[in-house]
Design a protein that fits this description.
It is a single chain. The chain is an all-alpha fold. It is 61% helix and 0% strand. 36% of the residues are buried.
């Protein structure tokens, strides 16, 4: 699915375009927008944790979604149940992450997987996708004019646990990793030879997510 800078750019785009000042804690919103992946920082991580944090149970294994509309409806229901929570801004970010991954699965990953499988193992195909997806994520961080502001707001974000989905302590580890490790000291990334996750594809994808997610999460309420 999408890597952290894509999630943060989508969330920041929503924040600046649609928020209208209604969010009391924009940092919580941005931290929430990466929170479902906090399970990667759990000591005993396995993919079942990611399925739980992403409200996903719609195929034989993570990465093979057979009921896209069922996943979308589950995310919508989750937002209805949590849209008035005390940590609403964080939960709005959490759902923004899920919807961004839903869009990625539908528009980028599944078409790529179906085109490239042809007898290849799923893990091999994902490896091809991940190499470019990770590189373009680093490129986006290096070239986005809003990166500094995103990191400033992210640092202000308060970590929360989400029952049945993620633990607060895992999210706190993820936050520190994002702020101090994952994007620190990286050399300039050359994406000119990319074939799948090109900068044009990902910039268009971010813009489309910003346009469409507001249909499912009304930030004005």
């Amino acid at each position: 699915m999408s890597y952290p800078m894509v999630h943060l750019k989508v969330a920041y785009g929503l924040l600046t375009r649609y928020d209208g000042g209604c969010m009391e804690r924009p940092g919580d919103f941005l931290l929430g927008s990466v929170a479902p992946d906090a399970v990667h920082f759990h000591d005993d991580y396995d993919v079942s944790l990611k399925e739980k944090s992403h409200l996903w149970k719609f195929g034989p294994r993570w990465g093979v979604t057979l009921d896209s509309e069922g996943w979308l409806e589950t995310i919508r229901r989750f937002w209805k149940e949590n849209g008035n929570a005390e940590n609403r801004d964080f939960m709005a970010g959490y759902c923004t992450h899920l919807l961004t991954d839903w869009e990625n699965d539908r528009c980028i990953w599944t078409p790529f997987r179906e085109k490239m499988m042809r007898g290849a193992a799923l893990d091999e195909v994902y490896g091809q996708y991940a190499a470019e997806a990770h590189g373009i994520d680093q490129w986006l961080y290096q070239n986005a004019t809003e990166s500094q502001e995103i990191w400033r707001l992210l640092e202000q974000g308060h970590a929360y646990g989400v029952e049945g989905c993620i633990l607060k302590e895992d999210l706190e580890r993820q936050k520190q990793s994002l702020l101090k490790e994952q994007f620190s000291g990286i050399t300039a990334v050359d994406v000119s030879g990319y074939r799948f996750c090109t900068k044009e594809v990902m910039e268009e994808f971010v813009e489309r997510c910003v346009e469409r997610i507001q249909e499912h999460i009304n930030l004005g309420n």
